[in-house]
Amino acid sequence: MTELIQTIVTSLVDHPEDVVVTEKETGHAVTYQLTVHQDDLGKVIGKQGRIAKAIRTVLFAAASHEDKRVQLEIME
């Protein structure tokens, strides 16, 4: 999943070298924390959160094969 998030986000941003995805697993839930360059934060979130919602939708679809709940946090 980490590679999937990195692949999607690096194609959106101007500073792909600053994309960092960390994974935290707690019980039946996995939280992915996405950190990008400050200038690219708006590009990842999108207007009214549409890009972030689309990334989360793809992530949920990819995780549907596993029995775990998946969350994506975009860190500032």
TrEMBL record:
Entry keyword Cell wall biogenesis/degradation: yes
One Pfam family it belongs to: KH_KhpA-B
Protein name (database record): RNA-binding protein KhpA
Record family assignment: Belongs to the KhpA RNA-binding protein family.
Keyword Mitochondrion: no
Function field: A probable RNA chaperone. Forms a complex with KhpB which binds to cellular RNA and controls its expression. Plays a role in peptidoglycan (PG) homeostasis and cell length regulation.
Keywords for the protein's UniProt record, in alphabetical order: Cell shape, Cell wall biogenesis/degradation, Chaperone, Cytoplasm, RNA-binding
Spans traversing the lipid bilayer: none
Organism per entry: Sutcliffiella rhizosphaerae
Known partners and oligomeric status: Forms a complex with KhpB.
Predominant location: cytoplasm
PROSITE patterns: KH_TYPE_1 (PS50084)
Cellular compartment(s): Cytoplasm
